Recover the amino acids of this structure.
């Protein structure tokens, strides 16, 4: 951590420059807008990489080449697709509730983007250093179900309605085990601030320090966040072979594009949260042992920039999610709920007790 | 505001609703429309609507010569084109008393079994896709592609081959046919492990199919189901065993039946059938006869007046061809008893009470080919 770049120098420099010429309120507003824009741009770039990566991963798993025509190695395929979506007509069905129909994609996207606010991007680089950051993320991500239900209901389409209802049941249920997995990490670290969470892992990631409960919590978090993102094998809300496209059947053009974008941003958010909680966020790999060589190793790890650590972890988790998607068949709705209520939730509750015990007796490393 | 617990069903307006699955829907694999009454996620009633791809093949055949009408049958069950052609050829040979050379018989059986393999490979992929896994579709297609290349080299076509004709086959196979088939078969055999890894051994897939879509032996018989669907309910109905044709009786192979009756049993039967098909092909390749591949026939056939019936085992079940001849150059009446038409009845019988996702899984394991239903 010592040798890493401290972004707080840069941010305070910007703050000083702005406040020199603007009033305090204007400074605040400018900073909010700037940081929001920056986070949005970072996420859009990540989404572009993710979409390209998904296609290449899928191609690799399916013995295909994936996109390879537009640009070098098909890298411009994503831009071509976005251009296509922009040029297509954004159709609103006649029988749809037009206001809700158009509002739904905005709500879904807005909610996902709001979850980015308390994330710690690097040393001293955080948009909103809140002391309830993790709590805010759990609260805000569960709101996305409202947007999906709105989309399904207002479309006035039976497939959409079925998809939205499935999604409602699914997200509300999986919110529980995701929440409990987060609570496990919170108990271990003793903080619900995302900055504090990352800093508590300076001497080792929670998945290493918290051994058994942290690993179980990490696995359940990845499973339940895959379900929350409506990704296969939990893609029941859009279940292509059953409900054509589920809740966004009636959406076309860029309105569909926003749902698509949201899916990927959501993936990015949950992977960043997972890495913040268990894999140390932007924190380099530090092994929690007092050994000469290990200290040297820990020191060497500091030379890798923090953004490589954060995005490396994020894309690793995303790769796992893609791996799930392109190998596993889809669950049925009752199996999905059974998995949550009969297996994940009890396991998580036991795990929580275990984590509490470990935390009280100081059995973690 | 009233307490929600005091409201009855009428005030809450819970009601069943009807959705049309198809004619354009990813799960129907063609233009089949299934009207499904749903109570939430549970299927209450199923009503299949046919006729979207009816082309009147039977009626058209009445205006065509005996040799010509065979080509229409490739378009019925397009994944069993060889076997459909085979059925018609056998019928005409039986009616006219035509002898077929041994080599032609062997080629026909090899082509039939290869066709069965391609059909089951495609089914395997699309079945997995209906259950939500996309990757198996490409694995299935990879293996199918090799066999289709073989068809293309030997028959000139990949989908509607029109290769088996009355009196033998259209033209002799390529000189390196035997070694080519051996290569393909070896590849398909070694690729079976992918099938096991991806789907057969998959926990989710097993849970989605085991104990789902129960078709009892009695209802399978009463609905007239044939092929893997009936055999998975424990009905012995393999035409290759019961009414052998073109030398199936001289070959050693097992009729796969399974008393499971569920989607998993149907899956299992098809997977085992693929292995049996490979076994049959290997036996045929061992002593592949030399000689003529086609008996010379007159340009225009005249079938003696009478009624004729011939059945074969396609990849989906029993294909029966019934022909009435008045002694002219065209059939007086031609009727196909296609397997998918009868198997469609099983969807209605199985589907009631299932979840909608299971209905798709069941339809996938019944393996419907819509042009075969409508003809």
């Amino acid at each position: 951590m010592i040798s890493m770049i401290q972004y707080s120098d840069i941010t305070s420099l910007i703050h000083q420059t702005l406040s020199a010429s603007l009033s305090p309120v204007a400074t605040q507003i400018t900073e909010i807008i700037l940081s929001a824009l920056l986070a949005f741009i970072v996420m859009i770039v990540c989404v572009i990489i993710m979409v390209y990566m998904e296609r290449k991963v899928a191609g690799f798993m399916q013995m295909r080449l994936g996109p390879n025509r537009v640009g070098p190695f098909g890298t411009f395929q994503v831009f071509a697709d976005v251009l296509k979506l922009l040029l297509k007509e954004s159709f609103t069905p006649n029988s749809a509730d037009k206001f809700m129909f158009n509002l739904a994609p905005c709500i879904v996207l807005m909610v996902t983007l709001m979850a980015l606010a308390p994330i710690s991007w690097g040393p001293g680089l955080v948009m909103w250093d809140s002391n309830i950051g993790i709590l805010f993320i759990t609260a805000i991500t569960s709101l996305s179900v409202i947007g999906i239900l709105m989309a399904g209901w207002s479309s006035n389409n039976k497939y959409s309605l079925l998809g939205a209802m499935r999604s409602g049941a699914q997200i509300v249920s999986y919110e529980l085990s995701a929440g409990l997995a987060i609570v496990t990490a919170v108990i271990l670290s003793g903080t619900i601030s995302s900055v504090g969470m990352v800093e508590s892992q300076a001497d080792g990631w929670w998945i290493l320090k918290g051994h058994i409960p942290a690993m179980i919590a990490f696995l359940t978090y990845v499973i339940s966040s895959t379900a929350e993102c409506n990704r296969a094998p939990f893609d029941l809300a859009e279940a292509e072979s059953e409900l054509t496209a589920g809740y966004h059947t009636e959406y076309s053009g860029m309105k569909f594009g926003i749902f698509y974008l949201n899916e990927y941003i959501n993936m990015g958010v949950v992977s960043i949260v997972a890495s913040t909680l268990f894999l140390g966020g932007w924190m380099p790999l530090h092994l929690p042992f007092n050994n000469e060589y290990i200290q040297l190793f820990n020191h060497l790890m500091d030379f890798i920039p923090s953004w490589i650590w954060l995005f490396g972890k994020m894309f690793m988790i995303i790769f796992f999610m893609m791996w799930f998607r392109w190998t596993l068949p889809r669950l049925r709705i009752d199996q999905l709920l059974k998995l949550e209520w009969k297996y994940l939730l009890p396991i998580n509750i036991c795990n929580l007790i275990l984590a509490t015990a470990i935390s009280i007796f100081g059995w973690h490393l | 505001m009233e307490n929600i617990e005091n409201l009855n069903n009428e005030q809450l307006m819970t009601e069943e609703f009807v959705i049309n699955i198809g004619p354009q829907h990813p799960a129907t694999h063609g233009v089949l429309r299934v009207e499904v009454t749903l109570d939430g996620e549970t299927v209450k009633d199923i009503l299949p609507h046919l006729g979207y791809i009816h082309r009147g093949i039977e009626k058209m055949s009445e205006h065509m010569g005996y040799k010509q009408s065979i080509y229409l049958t490739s378009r019925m069950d397009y994944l069993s084109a060889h076997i459909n052609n085979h059925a018609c050829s056998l019928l005409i040979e039986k009616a006219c008393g035509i002898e077929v050379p041994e080599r032609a018989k062997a080629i026909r059986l090899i082509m039939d079994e290869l066709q069965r393999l391609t059909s089951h490979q495609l089914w395997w992929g699309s079945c997995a896709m209906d259950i939500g896994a996309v990757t198996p579709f490409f694995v299935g297609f990879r293996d199918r592609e090799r066999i289709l290349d073989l068809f293309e080299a030997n028959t000139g076509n990949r989908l509607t081959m029109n290769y088996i004709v009355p009196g033998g086959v259209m033209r002799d196979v390529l000189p390196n046919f035997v070694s080519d088939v051996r290569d393909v078969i070896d590849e398909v055999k070694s690729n079976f492990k992918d099938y096991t890894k991806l789907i057969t051994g998959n926990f989710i897939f097993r849970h989605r199919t085991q104990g789902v879509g129960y078709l009892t032996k009695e209802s399978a018989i009463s609905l007239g189901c044939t092929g893997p669907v009936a055999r998975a309910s424990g009905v012995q109905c393999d035409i290759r065993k019961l009414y052998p044709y073109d030398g199936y009786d001289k070959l050693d192979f097992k009729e796969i039946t399974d008393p499971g009756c569920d989607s998993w049993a149907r899956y299992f039967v098809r997977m085992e059938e693929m292995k049996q098909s490979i076994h049959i092909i290997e036996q045929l390749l061992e002593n592949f006869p030399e000689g003529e591949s086609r008996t010379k026939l007159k340009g225009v056939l005249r079938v003696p007046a009478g009624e004729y019936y011939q059945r074969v085992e396609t990849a989906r079940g029993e294909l029966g061809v019934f022909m009435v001849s008045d002694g002219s150059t065209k059939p007086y009446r031609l009727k196909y008893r296609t397997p998918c038409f009868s198997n469609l009845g099983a969807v209605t019988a199985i589907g009631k009470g299932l979840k909608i996702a299971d209905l798709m899984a069941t339809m996938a394991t019944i393996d419907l080919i819509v042009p075969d239903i409508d003809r």
In short: The longest helix of chain B spans residues 102-130. Chain B touches chain A at residues 17, 19, 25-27, 38, 40-41, 128-135, 137-139, 142, 198-199, 202, 204-205, 207-208, 355-358, 360 (CB under 8 Å). DSSP finds 16 helices and eight strands in chain B. The mean pLDDT of chain B is 86.
